[in-house]
Amino acid sequence: MPRVPRPHALVILVLAVVLAGCGAARRELNQAPDRRLREAIHNVAVPETGASIVVTTFRPPGRGPFPWIVLSHGTATTPAANRAMGRFRPLPAINEWLRRGYAVVAPVRRGYGPSGGEQFGDSYGGCARPDFRRAGEGGALDLLATIDWAKRDTDLDPQRWLLVGQSAGGFASIYTASKRPAGLVAVLAFAPGRGGRPDTHPGEPCMPEAMAKVIGAIAPQIAVPVLWFYAANDQFVGPVAQRMWFNAFQDGGGRGELVVIAPFPFNRGHGVFTSAPGVPLWTPAVSEFFRTQTISLPF
Known about the structure:
The chain is an alpha/beta fold. It has helices at residues 9-30, 79-84, 91-99, 132-150, 168-177, 208-218, 239-251, 279-292, and strands at 40-46, 51-58, 66-72, 103-108, 156-166, 184-190, 226-231, 256-261. It is 35% helix and 19% strand. The chain has an eight-stranded mixed beta sheet with strand order 1-2-4-3-5-6-7-8, with helices on both faces. Helix 7 links the parallel strand 7 (226-231) and strand 8. It is globular.
């Protein structure tokens, strides 16, 4: 009788972590929506792919049509962690937008957490030869499907909305703006980028020159202003890449502002937007951006 090898203890541990994460994602998906936030969970089709994604909405008190944001999540450093993520609901940021009268529309892109799927829709491949344009196109498919779906909601004003993203979601938001969806007013990109390697190469993302090339190529198609917001100690996207990417955006004809705040002591400098301590740091930057760019929306 052939001998069946015993699983290595590390394999068992990894499997346990993955299964626990999947359980957390299921709990997040099945969690009762918060009525105080007028939270609701939806399945939204992405027609070009034959797939659907999970979208969570939050609405302020009163009656619409409200201005609104499409809120896009980041990407973890491992496929297992991305599979295990729950619905995207960073409550400190969401509560701030609701307080200011905005509705929030938060999709989970294909492959991640509750949206599932065999492949990540915004994958760029490996670090040696990343295809950031493919990642941008994949992310844009999900965001454009979310936007088209949201515009059919009479509570949301189709002419007053923003793309707001964290990390990979910031890059997806910038890339989606190059498709010029109608009614888009501005992009707020918090720690935008792809290819971060905080554990092995802090502050040095994969092939930043390749990302700069993609950003420079799409910049002429972006008709709205873009806020690029980073912390100086971001371990995913350090100061060299921050400046390189923003320069590529400007040199390509993009209109916007780069804001770099002092080192942020939490989340390796990368999670200013999604954390409670970050709220008093990013809100003044957004307010000033609205003023300097003459954005006719409340904030």
